[in-house]
Specification:
Length: 283
């Protein structure tokens, strides 16, 4: 009896866990669908800014961007768990990249609590920013990231723009991407035979600086949405696999419970039959 009750308690506990994980899976699914709508729109914004920058530089080819000599890595991982080896793959890709370029003491800005735990285990010197759990948190996270970038630029590099390389899961390409953020490095001539010079209300240098800021801010939005979408999909896959294992375990325990209950019923019948057999001669 005690063993069967223990199994029943275990089955009930697994049922509660299954309910919680099912709710988490539903939330991850909702977030994935939302990000799937938001990301394409943000990528179109980035493409439009890139087109404007190429057109501007076609008329102002002397414009240039001064970058700091030391590379800064913006490594984007998960803020929450239940996404398998999501963070481990990010750090493994970063390790391979740094080994290939023979980078020494890289400066890292780590985004995501779970990724930070992995990075600290590898004894890296990092700056940390809490990552977004949902799409609505991306703008506030970006503000904190940009503050870190400004601190870096003002600290030891004379105000030059930091040379930022992003490391993140790309949900569109379904792979880990290591991408330098150096806008407008390649320009293409205009196809129009009689191009019209752009009419600006700002001095060209001021306009170009603000265009770069807008591009980086918009591109970082797209990158964070992309990384968060990949995280949500990884969480969906991990939770789905965990729920399947949980269901198998619960089904196995239910079978054991039923077997024990059948044994108990058999014993009760045997006791009743034995009791009746003992009482029969006394009549």
């Amino acid at each position: 009896m005690t063993k069967r009750r223990d199994i029943e308690e275990h089955v009930r506990a697994l049922g509660e866990i299954e309910g919680i994980m099912g709710a988490m899976k539903s939330l991850a699914l909702m977030e994935s669908r939302k990000l799937s709508r938001v990301l394409p729109a943000q990528l179109r914004v980035v493409a439009d800014i890139e087109a404007a920058g190429r057109e501007f530089l076609s008329f102002h080819p002397d414009m240039s961007i001064e970058y700091a000599s030391h590379d800064l890595y913006l490594v984007i991982g998960a803020e929450r768990g239940f996404c398998g080896e999501f963070n481990g793959r990010v750090l493994s890709a970063l390790d391979r990249h740094l080994e290939a370029i023979k980078a020494k003491d890289p400066v890292l800005i780590v985004v995501g609590q779970k990724l930070l735990q992995r990075a600290e285990q590898r004894k890296r010197t990092v700056s940390f920013v809490e990552g977004p759990a949902i799409a609505d948190e991306v703008p506030s996270v970006l503000i904190r990231v940009i503050d870190r970038l400004r601190e870096f630029a003002a600290g030891d590099h004379g105000g030059a723009r930091p040379s930022v390389t992003t490391v993140y899961h790309d949900a569109v390409a379904n792979e880990i991407v290591i991408r330098p953020l150096r806008p407008f490095q390649q320009t293409h001539p205009l196809s129009n035979k009689q191009p019209i010079h752009p009419l600006l209300t700002l001095p060209p240098k001021v306009f170009f600086d603000q265009l770069i800021d807008l591009y980086l801010f918009s591109h970082l939005h797209a990158i964070f949405y992309d990384a968060l979408l990949a995280e949500s999909r990884a969480r969906l896959a991990h939770l789905d696999s965990a729920l399947q294992r949980l269901e198998r375990n619960r089904a196995g325990l239910q079978r054991k419970r039923n077997v024990l209950r059948q044994e108990e019923i058999t014993e009760e019948i045997e006791v009743l039959m034995l009791s009746n057999h003992v009482k029969s001669p006394q009549r």
